[in-house]
Amino acid sequence: MSEPKRHLGPSSPTSRRSFLRTGLALGGAVGAGGFTGRAAAETPDAKNLPPNVPEWSQALGEGVVSRPYGRPSKFEADVIRRDVEWLTASRQSSVSFTPLHQLEGIITPNGLGFERHHGGIAEIDPAEHRLMIHGLVEKPLMLTLEDVKRFPRVNRIAFLECAANSGMEWKGAQLNGCQFTHGMVHCVMYTGVPLRRLLEEAGLKTNAKWLLPEGADAAAMTRSVPIEKALDDAIVAYAMNGEALYPEHGYPLRLVLPGWQGNMWVKWLRRIKVGDEPWHTREETSKYTALMPDGQARRFTWAMDAKSVITNPSPQAPIHHKGFTVLSGLAWSGRGTIKGVDVSLDGGRNWRAARLDGPVLDKALTRFYYEFDWNGDPLLLQSRALDETGYVQPTKAALRQHRGLNSIYHNNGIQTWHVLPNGEIENVEVA
Amino acid sequence: MSRSRNGIGAALAALFLTASPAVAERLNIGRVATPEEIKGWDIDVRPDGKGLPVGKGTAALGETIFQERCASCHGEFGEGAGRWPELAGGAGTIKSESPVKTVGSYWPYVSTVFDFVHRAMPFGAAQTLTPDETYSVTAYLLYLNDILKDQDFEVNEKNLATIRLPNEKNFFMDDRETAEKEFWTAKPCMSNCLPKEAMITGRARILDVTPDKAPDSEKKSPPVQ
């Protein structure tokens, strides 16, 4: 159950000491000018370099099906999800982060999408899984996975962002790496049945206003979903990126609610109850509500507002060369498509339009680039997303002015990376 | 700040002008769920008490269960152990710099306590408490938070929903589109947007809590509760 007890920082002197210890590993390396994030040999063997013929050009490699299910090169072993141990009391109710700084394009590989579990990963035999739809329906339904797959299918690319993404940064810059500051987001293509189609099969009664999707995991996750969203674009998905959902993402079934906070995308979906009022479950009352400075709290904050982050360069991906430099990043909006991204090199004083490349899809990650010559001067990098509703990604200061420092969720403020003359990058705040 | 506290319907209508009722032919896939099957899984409880199972409990009985099943994480008096959540106390802290959000100080509805304890607690042994035990644990948590004063007061399916929590009135429907309207209306500035050069006001490395890159095998696993 443990939600991060204090999202915003270490809480005890003991834990603070251990953070400082772990912090030294990275801080020390950065201080010495070392660059992180390189898995390949730092000093290549000259016998494999021109004019010599490399060994892999002479000896045979492994045959087919030596890797029946393929995996990345062994030289990419550091491209992994990571967690922040001090954040939660146990790994069963915790979060791991997508390595955004090591990924390209807009699709997240299935093994790298961030995780958020509240009762560990349920390992479910699909033959023993059922989806029950009941409540204010004409015909309460019991569906097997095979049944669900008989319905007409849709494919949809959508980002999924945890409402607490960047939540640890509300009180100030804290984590050096976009994996940690922004890595509770991923984007895959889902295959499944429109939820609307399943509800039509059950037959909604006229007073049906809310749904309660429930997970089959040991947290039995539940959230109240308004019927309008369910009938609009919700999907009950069984595949991501062309293959079955991974267990950590809800195998065999999960709810997909494009643009809305990830906590509502119930994994291991076993039951959907139809009702006429919201349930006010634990995750929509004590958690995932935004506490304002006046003591009131905003609830049912479903949509994820427009946001962006520069993934390269970033603290885990420093700059290795002067001269021509490709700046790359991701932008997304839970309210529609990304209309544009602006980039600043001077901490938000002057902005230039970035170049969007690849598909620009409704409620999906969108890739942007900005190419420039770096002469070794310090830079303060920022990106600012604009979406089709006219929403402009705000500064952290503007957000704090509205919401104070204790709202935890929905931190979509502009991120600043400080580029040092030696190419190291640090997470900073500017004014 | 003016806020519409009961604006759920209006906000939804504005969000989904295009949504229409579901009308389509049945494909006759799957089968009817039986009342017995539904009963086994239908555990959710609403603030008005709908969904509560028949049962009863008291804080006095709940204390014993809590000490055995809950206190190792939540503390004897709900004060929380380590990084596990506090469940009691925190009154008067909600507007402070470090709010302590507990059942008494923050949660809006008693039904949520019953529902969550029944479905997800104890952590690692979910859905093992009987309805009577859940009523008792709920009563004990209310007692710890001074909501119930009498440890022998019986909480049951008929009166649970009549017990109100002090923070209920302080929740309001998402109003970002009006309260934060300026984020939609401001034209993005492109040049000379700051009066002077940007100055660094904070650094992550001052308190660098970024995890190191040690392989998982070398990290000490947190205790499994």
UniProtKB/TrEMBL annotation, chain A:
Q: Which domain of life is it from?
A: Bacteria
Q: Which Pfam families match?
A: Mo-co_dimer (PF03404), Oxidored_molyb (PF00174)
Q: Report domain Moybdenum cofactor oxidoreductase dimerisation positions.
A: 299-415
Domain called Oxidoreductase molybdopterin-binding: residue spans: 118-279
Keyword list, A-Z: Metal-binding, Molybdenum, Oxidoreductase
Kindly give the InterPro entries that the UniProt entry links to this protein.
Answer: Ig_E-set (IPR014756), MoCF_OxRdtse_dimer (IPR005066), Mopterin_OxRdtase_euk (IPR008335), OxRdtase_Mopterin-bd_dom (IPR000572), OxRdtase_Mopterin-bd_sf (IPR036374), Sulfite_DH_SoxC (IPR030835), TAT_signal (IPR006311)
Checking PANTHER family in the record gives:
SULFITE OXIDASE, MITOCHONDRIAL (PTHR19372:SF7), SULFITE REDUCTASE (PTHR19372)
Query: Under which name does UniProt file this protein?
Result: Sulfite dehydrogenase
- Species source reads Methylobacterium jeotgali
Organism placement in taxonomy: Bacteria, Pseudomonadati, Pseudomonadota, Alphaproteobacteria, Hyphomicrobiales
UniProtKB/TrEMBL annotation, chain B:
Q: Keywords of this protein's UniProt record, alphabetized?
A: Heme, Iron, Metal-binding, Signal
The UniProt record lists the Cytochrome c domain at: 57-145
Keyword Hydrolase carried by entry: no
Q: Which domain of life is it from?
A: Bacteria
* InterPro entries associated with the record: Cyt_c-like_dom (IPR009056), Cyt_c-like_dom_sf (IPR036909), Cytochrome_c-type_DH (IPR051459)
Q: Which Pfam families match?
A: Cytochrom_C
Q: What start and end residues bound the annotated signal peptide?
A: 1-24
Q: What is this protein called?
A: Cytochrome c domain-containing protein
This protein's species is Methylobacterium jeotgali
